[in-house]
Automatic annotation (TrEMBL):
CDD domains: HTH_XRE (cd00093)
SUPFAM superfamilies per record: lambda repressor-like DNA-binding domains
Segments traversing the membrane: none
Domain HTH cro/C1-type: 12-66
InterPro entries given in the database record: Cro/C1-type_HTH (IPR001387), Lambda_DNA-bd_dom_sf (IPR010982)
Pfam families for the chain: HTH_3 (PF01381)
Natural source organism: Streptacidiphilus monticola
Alphabetized Gene3D superfamilies for the sequence: lambda repressor-like DNA-binding domains (1.10.260.40)
Coiled coil segments of this chain: none
Entry-linked SMART domains: HTH_XRE
Protein name, UniProt field: Helix-turn-helix domain-containing protein
Length: 119
């Protein structure tokens, strides 16, 4: 099962890390507790629209950009899980930016684990 809160948390964490900022800096700017922001980034808590807006403001990023990245990752995860009929682990990768553009993050399926059969 694909959890939206985990995808959202991953996107928010990458945005923060791209800026070289700490949880403490962003939590203070967003006026949210450090622990709660950490739980949102780890996908353990659902962010309300008000909280998401405050975090995006603190990161100086448009909420639509965050949601677009989440939507793209969700679509890729759905495609990946639909191919085999079961969820597939995905890992974020950074795609080089086109001239004059920003880097793009995407999810790529991990290589499937091999089944071990006892002889």
């Amino acid at each position: 099962m694909i959890l939206l809160r985990r995808l959202l948390g991953d996107v928010l964490r990458r945005q923060r890390q791209r800026q070289g900022r700490t949880l403490r800096e962003v939590s203070a700017a967003a006026r949210v507790s450090l622990g709660y922001l950490s739980e949102v980034e780890r996908g353990q808590k659902e962010a309300s629209s008000e909280l998401l807006s405050a975090i995006c403001d603190a990161l100086d990023v448009r909420m639509s950009e965050v949601m677009r990245e989440v939507s793209d990752e969700l679509a890729l995860a759905e495609l990946a899980s639909g191919e085999s009929g079961r969820p597939v682990l995905v890992e974020p990768v950074t795609v080089p930016a086109p001239p004059g553009g920003d880097r793009v993050s995407a999810l790529m399926p991990k290589a499937p684990a091999m089944d071990v059969v006892a002889a």
